Amino acid sequence: MFKKLLGCFAGLILSAAAYAEDTKIIAFEQVIQPSVEQLYKAQTAAVSPSAKIWSMVYIVTQANQAPDNTAMGLKLTPEGLLFKNEPAKKSDDLNFEGIQLARSKDYALSKYQDLADIIQEQTGKKITDAQVFDASRAHVYARVEDWVPDYNAKTAGLSIVLGPLQEMEVKGLYILIGEGEQPKDLAAIAKLNPMVKSQYGSETAEAKAEARSEFREARWMIFLVVIAMGIYLGWYRRT
C-alpha cells in the first residue's frame, strides 16, 4: 500500500513538473523611459508551425494633465506571426485617450510574482520596474494576444512603436513572447486592456457603487444628528 502511495505521489510530482515546463518564455524585452517613434522589438528564432504562441505587452504611463486631456498612440507589428483572428492583418495601430487606460497606483509589473519568477528563471532577466513620480497619475496599458506561427518565417517577433503622445509619458515598456501554457498572471493582466469593455465597465460600476455607499452613509449621519438635536432640545426645554 505504501509503495502504491509513494508511486502515486511521485507521479503527481512528475506531472506537476511536466506542466510547469509547458510554459516557455522565448523572448522578453524591457525598456525604461522608451522614446517616441523608436522601434522596440522582442525576437526569437522561427517557431514550429504547430506551436501555441502568445504574447504580452505591458506599458506604464504617467499623465501630465487630467486623463481627459491625455492620449497615447502605438503601433504593434508581428514578424513571423499571424494574428489568430485576423491572419491577413499586418499590424495594429491603436490610439487611446488617457481616460481609457487603467489607473493603477500599483503599476509595477513585478507585482505579478509568478510571472516575474518564470521570466527570471528562464531568461535570467529580472524585471526592472518603471518609476512614476506621482503614483496617482500612473496608467497601465496591457494586451495579451494569441498568435499563429507563419509557416515560411525564419524568425518570430513582435515590435512596438510608441506615439503620438499627448501630455503623457511612457515610463516602461515590456514585451513578452511565450510558447505553451500562459502563466496564470496573464489572465489578470489581460483585463488591463482598454479594448476589454468589462474592465472599464467594472471600474465605472465600482465607482458608482462606492458613491452610492458614501451617500447612504452621509444621509444616515444627518439623520442621527437631527435625532440627537431633537433629543437635546426636548431635554433643554424641560430644564
Number of helices: 4
**Poorly predicted regions:** 1-6, 12-21, 198-207
Distance between the termini: 86 Å
Shape: elongated
Mean pLDDT: 86
Summed up, the domain count is: 2
**How helical, in percent, are the residues?**
25-40%
Instruction: Report the portion of residues in β strands.
Output: 35-45%
The largest sheet, given as strand count, sense and whether it forms a barrel, is:
6 strands, antiparallel
Structure classification: alpha+beta
Q: SSE order, as H and E?
A: HEEEEEEEHEEEHH
Radius of gyration based on Cα positions: 25 Å
Characterization of this structure:
By secondary structure, the protein is α+β, with helices and mostly antiparallel strands. The protein folds into 2 domains: 175 residues; 41 residues. 33% of the residues lie in helices and 36% in strands. It has 4 helices and 10 strands, in the order H-E-E-E-E-E-E-E-H-E-E-E-H-H. The chain starts with a helix and ends with a helix. The relative contact order is 0.23. The N terminus is likely disordered.
